[in-house]
């Protein structure tokens, strides 16, 4: 009995400490998001109809980006990252400079004006419309999940029509290397994941951005708002970003998304793409070709869109920006996409492989593509059709395609070689191929 009495003050003290922490975090959850007493009349959403866009007979990439500009439901975790500010979207140069290695430190000191980066590519059958979202911090409760800068996004697959806009038929989203596809009535090819249907408001996708945090559905990964995952959103906090043509700072993020509207501005992805060649290092935007310059917790941990990679045998770094026609056609069975780009400003290289020949009796099972000595392809990429006399024509994945559009540095060294079933290079085999730098 006396031993229990000696413990009682210790237990009481621990209880008081626990209660203090509980009150502190509960208070933050209840109060943060009400930090501003300001109010403003929401800007109207910018609409661009087909009649307006096609009136002059010329449809520009920017008009396409405006028409499909998404509605964004961004969750906010108020317990970390300047009481939730780390979940605001912004421009990379929000602090007035292009140094990305001071953005973690400056995030709390500058207004984070909502900015969305857009891209448009075209084939003769489809538009591919991308939107990217930047956060100064990928933050979490534990240091292993933290790093400076964060860049995630979506890509829409939209059928082309004469003098009309059609709704997207498919979308993929990006978050930490996981790339789910969304669409109705579609079937995923082996190695790809169809995560659900599209949520649309007219022709605009409605998407959900997860908040900073440690759980699986966190870290600003993006999902369709149709049945998106649940996340413990502290204080029921969120922002509804929409395209109003002006980059605003959220006034509040307490309560339902619909109660917290905030207009964003559109900025062409070329603003960042044009800086990909460096200079690199301290005080610069990029630490290397496909990584933002960052020095908090993990060095150069965040990738721009030309550094994203789908973790399947048909994905390669940058293909989700540089070659969206390949990406969609390899992932979704029902999409009939032309590989012939009429506009693609986000590829550095055009690599074409047409045929392979070998000495009599040589075994040719597939090909191998190498960049700077590293294998970029898998054997499943290549479909070889024998023509006789030791010669085969080549198609990429059997899709009447012989060209890849690749994002890679100008100094990249390419090699294409024939391999046997053991994936050994075949002596004496010659591959007919060409790599052209486009810039």
Describe the secondary-structure layout.
Layout: H1 2-31, H2 50-53, H3 61-67, E1 71-75, H4 103-106, E2 115-123, E3 126-138, E4 147-159, E5 170-174, E6 181-182, E7 194-196, E8 200-201, E9 204-209, E10 222-224, E11 238-243, E12 261-268, H5 270-273, E13 286-288, E14 291-292, H6 319-322, H7 324-331, E15 341-343, E16 349-357, E17 366-371, E18 374-375, E19 382-388, E20 391-396, E21 403-406, E22 414-419, E23 430-437
Parallel strand pairs: 1-9, 2-12, 6-7, 11-12
Antiparallel strand pairs: 1-11, 2-3, 2-15, 3-4, 4-5, 5-6, 8-9, 9-10, 13-14, 16-20, 16-21, 16-23, 17-18, 17-22, 19-20
Please characterize this protein's 3D structure.
The protein is an alpha+beta fold and 439 residues long. It contains 7 helices and 23 strands. It has 2 domains: 35-331, no CATH class; 347-437, Immunoglobulin-like (Sandwich). It has helices at residues 2-31, 50-53, 61-67, 103-106, 270-273, 319-322, 324-331; strands at 71-75, 115-123, 126-138, 147-159, 170-174, 181-182, 194-196, 200-201, 204-209, 222-224, 238-243, 261-268, 286-288, 291-292, 341-343, 349-357, 366-371, 374-375, 382-388, 391-396, 403-406, 414-419, 430-437. Strands 1, 2, 3, 4, 5, 6, 7, 8, 9, 10, 11, 12 and 15 form a 13-stranded mixed sheet that branches. Strands 16, 19, 20, 21 and 23 form a 5-stranded antiparallel sheet that branches. A hairpin with a 2-residue loop joins strand 8 and strand 9 (204-209). The radius of gyration is 25 Å and the shape is globular. It starts with a helix and ends with a strand. The model is unreliable at 1-9 and 11-37 (pLDDT under 50).
